[in-house]
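Hey, I'm writing a tutorial for new members on how sequence and structure tokens pair up, and I'd like a real worked example in the thread rather than a made-up one. If someone can provide the structure for the chain below, I'll link this post from the tutorial.
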Amino acid sequence: MSILKVSNIRKSFGKTEVLKDISFTLEKGEVLSIIGSSGSGKTTLLRCLNFLETINNGKIEVDDEILYDSGSNVRMTDEKIRENRLNFGLVFQNFNLFPQYTVLQNLTLAPTLLKKGTPEEIENKAREIIKSVGLEEKVDFYPCQLSGGQQQRVAIARALALNPKILFFDEPTSALDPELTQEVLNVIRELKDKGCTMVIVTHEMDFARHVSDKVIFMADGVIEEQGTPEDVLVNPKSERTKAFLNKLG
């Protein structure tokens, strides 16, 4: 059974159509990597799925529950949008941590506001997640005291704190140097081993090949090609996919 089903999504900004009839499914525990050139619509797709943008047309379903259907007359209230977002955790390329809060406080803030347990339960869970990403010794540090890789690991931990059904990553290593990139990719590999369902917009082709169950190549707002890593990254059928991969060397 698909945990995520995306059907016929379209999104325009003014007269510019950025997403053109996007459809795909994702099974529980699968990792989907989305690749493509800058401007192909990858980040906009993530923002639409996470309800940071409103789609013009299409349907989004999670665990057979319709979160959004443009064909429905049901109006999306702010409360419903906030409720829908709880299905997803989103990790940005630039960390987006709260600089005035410690690592622990960054993780406990949202669960506390949403009353996801007693203060003790919330803190204990946060400490457990922080330990799982290898930062238990940094629990009282502020973001400015951490390396970029450590900050991104905190961002991943924070996304996990609300028990999302699916984790979204938007170019999680693009702001990092190669050494720090590896530590973040290792955390994502560990999440895969634990059965976490993930959608990753990435430019790390080797990582996408070895960690993904599915790969989507986007170009000009459409899914040009999708399939297994072997299908898309090793034996692509589309000339546009081949040209993109050849450009990367």
